[in-house]
Amino acid sequence: MTKMSKKDLISAVKPRYLKARRKEKTKILVEFCQNTGYNRKYAITIMAAGYNHRKVEKTGRKKRKPKYGNEVICTAVKVWELLDFPCGVRLKPSLEPTIEAMERHKEITVTTKVRRGLLEISARTLDRRLKKEREVRRLDRHRGTTKHGSLLKSQIPIRITNWDTSEVGFMEMDTVSHNGGDPNGQFVSSLDMVEIYSGWSEQYAIMGKGETETVRAVDDIRADLPVEISGLDSDSGSEFVNWHMVRYCQKEPTLYFTRSRPDKKNDNAYVEQKNGSHIRDLLGFGRFDTPTHVKTMNDLYRNELRLMNNFFKPVMKIKSKEKINNSVCRKKYDIAKTPYQRLMGCPDIPDKKKKELQVLYLSLNPVQLKKQIDAKVKIIKNL
Predict the structure, then answer these.
(1) How many angstroms separate the CA atoms of 367 and 242, rounded?
(2) Are 195 and 201 in contact, with CB atoms under 8 Å apart?
(3) By CB distance 3.0 to 4.6 Å, which of 50, 88, 208, 374 could disulfide with 123?
């Protein structure tokens, strides 16, 4: 019997119980306890005239005193803002390492009590306590400007979503247009590339979506990556589906080039997510169309932004998917880690490269990086 059914039964039986004689009350109680499974003493209590079994519905339950005080939440908010507002599941594993980095550079002081609270607080509680702040920072979605390339489609194989996320070196790439809603004329585009295993991401600003410029940007990004690239995957846009990109990939026999199905954004889910969190949320939807914009954006992309995103911002990976009733898909994720942490735990990365990454990580101040990013974003928007 459900809770609702039990409440309905109480409402029906109680008036009869109160009017009944003693022997009749005994029979009613026995029958009532058999139907509901209640203890006899408890049944007598709720059947009493002064007991209101509908009180919770009318007045609500008494609010529980918050377990985590303002000091704990304020410290969590500082990290949350520093990492550009991740969800609680991504924020929770990043609290301790980020605070350690901030303390290392004397950007914050955390008491033992607050540190204990941050270690105990759950991801769901973080989401609940930060809900109002999230509502204030929502952004509208805008349409993209991808044009399908018709050349060479038959020669570039289609890859859907069958990435083996346990292998290092496969990247998705896409472009984000900064045209302010007006696709006429020349404007800046941001090339976005994401490594599937670790979530390591790189951005590069180019003028327009020219084939030569796109290939040059891809080559410059590869030179700065901490991993060797085995495969590139893009959408069917003309900036990627062209002879320049095909020849570039054909120069290296081990470098595979694939594309996704037209109008199927989920085929490029990894990079599409980064388009929003690493570019749109940062630079917005304004129009950038001068060489100065390109230079200033690359100064941001190739320095502070890549360090902040890859060394301090956590990434979650799907461990399994399960369909329920052929409609709802239940997903299970692993513990959120930064791309740096995932590469440090990867056996395929050479020890020499890991030591270089560790030295770089220990030298980084996340608070200073955030300040520099905000300052450069302000300059870009005011150009």
Answers:
(1) 42
(2) yes
(3) 88
CA distance 243 to 246: 5
Are residues 126 and 210 both part of a single domain?
A: no
Q: Which of 79, 289, 80, 91 is nearest to 180 (CA)?
A: 289
Residues in the chain: 383
Question: Could you tell me which of 370, 365, 313, 369 has the C-alpha nearest to residue 106?
Answer: 365
Q: Note whether 178 and 90 are same-domain residues.
A: no
User: According to the model, what pLDDT value does residue 143 have?
Assistant: 46
Low-confidence stretches of the chain (pLDDT beneath 50): 139-143, 148-149, 151
Token pair listed for 188: 């800046």
Instruction: For tokens 């290939």, name the residue.
Output: 215
The 170-178 sheet, strands edge to edge: 201-207, 188-195, 170-178, 231-234, 256-259
Q: Residue 72: inside a domain, yes or no?
A: no
Q: How far apart are CA 370 and CA 352, in angstroms?
A: 28
3-state secondary structure of 237: strand
pTM, two decimals, is 0.74
pLDDT computed for residue 159 by the predictor:
66
Report the 10 Å Cβ neighbour count for 175. Answer: 25
Q: Is 326 left (phi over 0), alpha (psi -120 to 50) or beta?
A: left
**pLDDT at site 125:** 93
Residues 6+ apart with CB under 8 A from 50: none
Helix (H, G, I), strand (E, B) or coil at 205: strand
What's the pLDDT at 141? 44
In the beta sheet, which residues pair with residue 176? Answer: 190
Number of domains forming the structure of the chain: 3
Instruction: Please report, to the nearest 10 degrees, the dihedral formed by the alpha carbons of residues 33, 37, 40, 43 taken in order.
Output: -80
Q: Which pLDDT score is estimated for 137?
A: 63
What does the pLDDT read at residue 374?
A: 94
**So what's the pLDDT on residue 161?**
54
d(C-alpha 134, C-alpha 103), whole Å: 26
Look at residue 335 and tell me if it is in a domain. Answer: yes
Structural domain including 317 reads 153-382
Domain of 359, CATH number, reads 3.30.420.10
Q: How confident is the model at residue 142, as a pLDDT?
A: 45
> In angstroms, how far is CA 88 from the centroid of its own chain?
9
Residue listed under structure tokens 């939807």 = 285
